[in-house]
Design goal:
Length: 290
């Protein structure tokens, strides 16, 4: 099939290449790199009706502005796909705005990162059946066998991807804590070796363990060149917010999110409060700064 790709960053470039390798014709627009089009209007002109335009750009203002511009260009029967990590509430709203113009909107959660070109991308599609049907040839090329699904109506794709990323937070934190405990033990352990054997036969084996092994081989077990600052990209927060709204307990995912917040503190004011309270009620010593 023929489609347009907006955004040629780490994900968009890999998806574009995988689609082209699969025999699809992909027209592109990204003002930062060489593209087939120099504007969104030119991109649309390079496609045939019903046109399919897939956005792989950061969530937030850039997606909002690009969506609005494309909705002013696309026509009834065309399909607009958001493959970024947008909030599912925004996707539901954008679906309504697109429907008013006769454009069908799909929210497609994409997982696979920089390895997606080689291994394939896991795709979680939300939106109208007809639009998913038009996009199906591309979805089948992008995903490994069994790696994509039409998970529900508008918003469902980004909702499932949000939960997926929340789970990812919890898994990563569990591995991090386990290796931290091993580092504090009395044993002189080889973490590259341990992560290596955990890739085979272990009940905790996963792609994350494989990536951890590769990273430890690259940086060394002490990780002296790595800062302990851990960023979050939003989906973990949204997952916890939705859990609060639904009164669903997510203790592991919530703790993993808070651990990322804690990693960014040069000093913990909360810990200082704990220290002075222990001194006040129990006479425990307070460690002063040197």
């Amino acid at each position: 099939m023929k489609l347009g790709m907006v955004g040629l960053g780490r994900m968009g470039s890999g998806m574009t290449e995988r689609l082209r390798q699969g025999g699809h014709e992909v027209m592109t627009y990204d003002p930062q790199v060489e593209s087939t089009a120099s504007s969104l209007e030119e991109l649309a002109s390079q496609l045939e009706s019903p046109r399919v335009v897939w956005m792989m750009i950061p969530a937030g203002k850039i997606t909002e502005d690009t969506t609005r511009e494309l909705l002013g260009i696309l026509e009834s029967g065309d399909v607009l796909v958001d493959g970024g990590n947008s909030n599912f509430h925004d996707s539901q709203r954008r679906n309504g705005e697109a429907a008013e113009r006769g454009v069908e909107f799909l929210d497609v959660g994409v997982s696979g990162g920089i390895w997606g070109l080689k291994e394939g991308f896991c795709l979680m599609a939300g939106g109208p059946d007809r639009a998913v049907g038009l996009l199906q040839p591309a979805l089948e090329t992008l995903a490994p066998p069994g790696g994509w699904a039409h998970v529900g109506p508008s918003g469902a794709g980004h909702f499932v991807k949000m939960v997926h990323n929340g789970i990812e937070y919890g898994l990563m934190q569990a591995y991090a804590e386990g290796f931290d405990l091993m580092r504090a033990s009395e044993f002189d352990l080889d973490f590259e070796q341990i992560s290596g054997i955990w890739r085979y036969g272990s009940v905790v084996r996963s792609w994350l363990v494989e990536l951890l092994h590769d990273a430890l081989a690259k940086h060394g077990g002490g990780l002296e060149d790595i800062s302990d600052y851990v960023e979050d990209s939003g989906e973990g927060r949204w997952t916890v917010e939705e859990a609060v709204n639904a009164a669903v307990p997510l203790p592991v995912i919530t703790a993993a999110l808070y651990a990322r917040f804690a990693s960014r503190q040069d000093e913990s004011y909360a810990a200082k409060i704990n220290a002075i309270l222990r001194a006040e009620f129990g006479g425990h010593p307070v460690t002063k700064k040197q």
